[in-house]
Design brief:
The protein is mainly β. The protein has one domain (35-131): Immunoglobulin-like (Sandwich). The chain is 13% helix and 42% strand. The chain has one helix at residues 2-19, and strands at residues 35-37, 41-47, 53-61, 69-74, 79-82, 93-100, 106-116, 123-131. The strands form 2 sheets. Strands 1-3-6-5 form a 4-stranded antiparallel sheet, with no helix packed on it. Strands 2-8-7-4 form a 4-stranded mixed sheet, with no helix packed on it. Residues 1-27 have low confidence and may be disordered.
């Protein structure tokens, strides 16, 4: 019985929320850093055991505040990463160095999570390839 009395109020409230106009657009852009990678995947192809497998993921800060890379996490201990600890200014370009351990034989498909203070959130990068013994 109590629900019947509240039903019109609930329906009116839900309708008001759904039909209320969106916030007006003021023309102001969001502020803060934005990280943009030139590529988010890299294929090493076939490499021999012991070969160097290093790739630099190039990125830029296209936002309007300094960008800081907070952490880079690899999906396994088979990779090493290096990145700048200094803030990257607006318009600046930098890179993230990823190295795969080629002493591990077989195919690989690994992810790297890049955590930053960027407005567009955390970014996931991917490397793949295959380590096979030369004939």
């Amino acid at each position: 019985m109590r629900l019947r009395r509240l039903l019109p109020v609930i329906l009116f409230s839900a309708t008001a929320v759904v039909t209320s106009p969106a916030q007006p657009v003021t023309g102001q852009e969001r502020s803060g850093p934005l990280i943009n990678f030139s590529e988010t995947e890299y294929d090493f192809g076939t490499v021999s055991p012991g070969d160097e497998a290093v790739h630099y993921f190039v990125f830029s800060n296209t936002g309007n505040a300094p960008l800081a890379i907070i952490n880079v996490r690899a999906s396994c201990g088979c990779m090493a990463s290096e990145w700048t600890k200094k803030p990257i200014n607006t318009g600046a370009v930098d890179s993230l160095r990823i190295e795969y351990n080629t002493r591990i034989k077989g195919s690989f498909n690994k992810t790297i999570s890049v955590q930053s203070n960027a407005e567009n959130g955390d970014i996931e990068l991917r490397i793949r390839g295959s380590v096979v013994k030369s004939k």
